[in-house]
Design brief:
The structure is a homodimer of 367-residue chains. Chain A has 15 helices and 11 strands. By secondary structure, chain A is an alpha/beta fold. In chain A, helix 9 packs parallel to helix 11.
Chain lengths: 367, 367
């Protein structure tokens, strides 16, 4: 609705900086600096500008306007890492949808740091956004006070990518568990039974049991835990015993994935297949294969998250899970904008389907 | 300076929403909704909250605070496409640097659309950021009024990645022309003379002459034009005549790169090498090679912008130009924060060096 947007900005009837400057008998830049509170302005000129602004009623500014209309036409988005193409795609979906409905979008990236996330939420409250979409690093009840603070101020919040069980909020996620299960089933159908999982929870040491592993996962990121559960589901269905040595632990970085896949390749009963839950896990695994003089799919079968232009041009091209990134953003923005339009939040988890794109990185296990 | 940041947020001495709620005898959520201007509040309760807020001086809020201190501790960043890993890296550099100096960073993505860029600039002015870093889609004098408007309001602006000759501003860029020249020289040294350039300016039709091509480039993105000039420099130095058939024109998308490389491969005197100026140009070119049954470096040598984890795990790995993305962001943030600290803007273009990472996608031309 471009008309609505235009009106939101036009600030009709409000004096402009130029008018204040003319009234004060100063240059436009001086008036701008004084009213913006930036840069140096001499006390005398400053006083003249402020007097002129008061006379003309200049302080009927964006804040005052939003206090009367209740809408600033801005959405705030907090993502874990804008450098991850996944989140970049989600943000694009949010921007496209909100723009079509007359809203601007501002984005903050927390780099998976909860302190940064709290700071980012405070910035969005300060900047008076109308609503917030967040991919939160929060895992449990003790970590969600900042989200509750935004809601307390009447700012609706929609979760994207990551559900938080402690919060009863609208959330848009993908079918992580089913997607992982389908990928691992595909590997099992090709005859593989020694299937590495990269990456698991960032525990300092490998959990000795399945129960410890799941406990560790539940203390960490929701998406990662769901993908791990899908891996275990597929093993269970095929009655393949769980082997903790086939799950990567430690920091979730490419280098660690390379080390851990190298370790799994050196086991007496080595892995013959890999399921990688992130782009950097895929590239890290490919480095380990090359260093070991092995190639895919001949020596090791491989399926990864997330699809990209690169995965398609690899030789051979990789079988990958494609997440509906744009749709995730669209849906989250729609839910938020509907709430702003007066719809009652449904407080439900909306799950979108991912899709496995079968290319050429899975071959039958040689018998 | 975490202390400074803490103080910026603590808002000491200001009444909290809870205090206003207590004074008004309403719930905290009601007070929050009223003062935030969101959600439904009955007229009677609304009046009580506003009276309590006035009594306690609640409206000494973030805006009023910034008008007295002159600093909101927020930087605004406008990038052309946050989905491009290049810009994601630049934003990371900006965030890391500004965070270390007690500033938060909010990001807006314009998807290369000038109207969106103007809207984004207005949002940042409305949101009262202290300074702006922008990778602008503006090319000439008629397109920079929004940037001048921010400066008029005393908001310092630093350009990143893209210089704008019409504006005398601090800018941080890379050595695009030298980087392109070095890449093309590397191909020429390996014996290649039929070198495709992907991508050129988005002209609807192929310019017939070098002059027309350069005129077209000057009407488009600065970085693209610089890379084209570097390509031409290298050809000139080696006395290789310019052939307009070897420059891609048209929309800058992967599919078009694939079509155009296919065309260059089908020429009677076909290309034996490719220089690709973007990630999507690289993957598009690789698709064309595969479709033609050709492989690199045997049939076609290839060098591309920008390096990534994927380029390193390709088989064979690709020779790529690595841009100092984090440093670009760091330097831009430093220049902006120094200006906010009172330093005089130097109004200079600061050029960072890129680096060609030689891997295995260039082989000598068979004689």
């Amino acid at each position: 609705m471009p008309a609505e947007r235009g009106q939101g900005r036009a600030e009709r009837g409000r004096p402009t900086i130029s008018e204040v400057a003319a009234e004060a008998g100063v240059g436009r830049a001086t008036a701008g600096r004084t009213l913006g509170g930036y840069g140096y302005v001499s006390p005398e000129l400053r006083e003249r500008v402020l007097a002129a602004a008061e006379k003309l009623g200049y302080r009927a500014n964006a804040l005052a306007r939003s206090m009367s209309t209740g809408v600033t036409h801005t959405l705030g988005v907090i993502v874990a890492d804008i450098g991850n193409p996944f989140f970049a795609g989600v943000v694009r979906g949010i921007c496209d949808t909100s723009r079509a409905r007359g809203f601007d979008t501002i984005v903050l990236s927390t780099y998976e740091n909860l302190e940064e996330e709290i700071a980012a939420t405070n910035v969005l409250i300060d900047k008076r956004v109308d609503g917030v979409i967040i991919a939160s690093a929060a895992v449990d009840k003790r970590e969600v006070a900042h989200i509750e603070a935004a809601m307390d101020r009447g700012i609706p919040v929609v979760l994207v990518d990551r559900a938080i069980s402690a919060l009863d909020l609208d959330a848009v996620v993908i079918d992580n568990r089913d997607a992982a299960r389908e990928a691992v089933e595909t590997l099992i159908e090709a005859g593989h039974r020694r299937i590495g999982f990269v990456w698991g929870p960032p525990a300092p040491q490998a959990p000795a049991t399945r129960r410890e592993l799941l406990a560790e996962a539940s203390r960490n990121l929701w998406t990662d835990g769901e993908r791990l559960r899908g891996y275990l589901d597929a093993l269970d269905d095929a009655r393949i015993p769980f082997d903790p040595e086939l799950v990567m632990v430690g920091p979730k970085v490419e280098e660690r994935a390379t080390q851990e896949v190298a370790r799994m390749l050196a086991l007496p009963d080595r892995i013959t297949a890999l399921f990688c839950t992130e782009t950097d896990a895929v590239t890290g695994a490919l480095r380990a294969l090359r260093a070991a003089g092995l190639s895919y799919p001949r020596d090791v079968a491989l399926i990864g998250f997330d699809d990209s232009a690169w995965a398609a041009v690899m030789e051979p091209p990789l079988t990958m899970i494609e997440q509906p990134v744009h749709q995730l953003g669209e849906k989250a923005a729609q839910m938020l904008l509907d709430t702003l339009d007066g719809a009652e939040p449904r407080r439900e988890m909306h799950t979108l389907r991912s899709r496995m794109i079968r290319r050429s990185s899975v071959a039958p296990l040689p018998t």
